[in-house]
Task: structure prediction
Amino acid sequence: MTDFPEHVELLTDLYELTMAASYFENKMAESATFSLFIRKYPPNRAYFVAAGLEDVLNYAANFRFSETDLAYLDSTGTFSDDFLHYLKNMRFTGSVRALAEGEIFFKDEPILEVTAPIIEAQILETLVINTINLQSMIATKAARCVHGASGRRLIDFSLRRTHGVDAGLKVARNSYIAGFAATSNVLAGKLYGIPISGTMAHSYISAFGDEIAAFRAFARSFPEKTVLLIDTYDTLAGARKAAVIGQEMAKGGGKLLGVRLDSGDMTTLSQEVRNILDDAGLKETGIFASSNFDEYKIARLISEGARIDAFGVGTKMGVSADAPYFDIVYKLVQYGKRPIMKLSTGKVNLAGKKQVFRRPDSQGRFIEDVIGTHDETQEGTMPLLAPVLEKGKQIKAPPTLEEIRQHFAKRFQALDEAYKALDGPPSYPVKLSPRLSALQKTASS
Result:
């Protein structure tokens, strides 16, 4: 499924098109390979989660400039008629090899490699970076939250503060890949089949004026999905009123699913609310918490003994607040038969088409990765980059969201706990094969 906007081919940096126009004028049409990778880890990161591939493949497979796109480009006075005619007929005819969505990967490892006539491969750059950066960034942040929650349910509450409508949808999708149980985003539920979840706002309570009257009204409206927000006035008084509602529902054969905390000392309040509910015979009523949660706050409350069963995680996950971008780049690594290496200070890339080989132990846990050339083999390893697009066409139907989610869960389980640490994790071992190392010595800038 793709939800790219109309005229997405123009969603690019101007220099992609000016470079393409110059390639065209100079009759440069040989096959080129570009590699997408992340140069370094943000603070407290030791792994990444690959996401966004499905959108990239849809974009490449359906690439074409419309008449109105070409008319706009013509109006800029920048491009020749011959080049605009070339763009009118241009389709992506190349290939893509990529990590599966949900795969764990590490810095310097190619997330995907695009091989196509140089104009086609060049023009993809901006949207490929934009798409993979956002979605992998969110999937990685969400994975950290899931790890910090130690098995407790997490719900995506980020929509109202994500950076735009499309970002809100992608946050819902990619947090679900990483193990979130549901989202508050109703459109994401419709588009992606993600479970949706929500309770009520303080305005609902305030509109009634009487807290217990609001609770009773909501329970009547949603007798099978009643979760009550109890901190509009006084949290413990709200918990006692919720307990009354829970007992009333139990008498009628129903059940109060939960109560929600949204402010205050969450550790102490959750413990006291748990006692109130238990004393009322509501031991199965859960405690849900929201309010500025991220992996650090979740893990801290759990370590303090908070009695919280599930968390609503919003802004800090939805914008990846502590790491709001990755140093992700799309670099030319081969043109024709010539391997290419950029030599700028601090920005050297690995030349040549590549493969990532993962070495597991006998239990399937990751030991190390080896970055090698695309045409070599490494005994006892799993190659991670797989062909996904050939001659501009997708090789097979993309995996379902549930399959991607399961793939991530399996891979994340195989990653040693040390690399999942929220603070100061060690670096996972990644090395170059002798063959790839030798290629670097022959590469030109």
Observations:
- The longest strand covers residues 31-38.
- The longest helix spans residues 125-149.
